[in-house]
């Protein structure tokens, strides 16, 4: 079968928050001849900017008819209202379909949207960020092949300047406080408990960034692009996941922190032993309950020297850049549907100064 080299990409983008890491990686793949053409149609971005949603969907179908891709790559379609009939029309000239869902969904409380089910059912491969319920959602929807794909970081957004031996804070947390009363996110109460315990133990040596928090450590929300800079101001970044029971799941805060050279503490999920080998314990602290994680954070800070932490930060950075780069992950996903891109050649060609693909 001929490898697909003409890609129609329907990204997950809102407003000016473009997927710059993927756009740059696609530009590099085009520049090196790994792909022939890439057409971008940012459907969700167009819809949220206004206008008639049905007209935007019709425009996507018209682009697919004109461009006639041999691969369609869609991400996070839940807001778009795409139906199975729409997807069938997009694929009617024989294109393969790759779908990535990087948002977490449970079975009942926060179910998979109808559009994601429709796309997943028709996809050759679905990639999703959890190996338990998140993956089972797509299998129940009729997906033929579902694979776990972790959250990653955009290399161009990571602060890689040398770090100082002195830190303003012991611990930093980046994450919002969930205030939903009737349909709260899973583990929202545990996240609040985790933050309360951290504040009690660390006081103003804790930096708490995000919406909804109060107390001596609260510093308000920060732009997404500043996460890397913020976590570098503490010895350790920490998070309690909203989806604590999902196998192999972690939010993008973990790869962003590790890639920035920050030690990280987070929820212990089922399946982590297959993702993080024993040697990662020097820079990754995990706990089974909020109380357990707070105790382990305190013990880590009390029993490690500055030199040990600095050495562990370098190991964290090396691990993340080897396993969690967004551009490398794009190649993995494209190859899952037979593009045949050489990962080593692609990795050698990544260029953070390449202009990303323009808006589509």
UniProtKB/TrEMBL annotation:
Every Spore protein YkvP/CgeB glycosyl transferase-like domain range: 191-332
Name of the molecule in the record: Spore protein YkvP/CgeB glycosyl transferase-like domain-containing protein
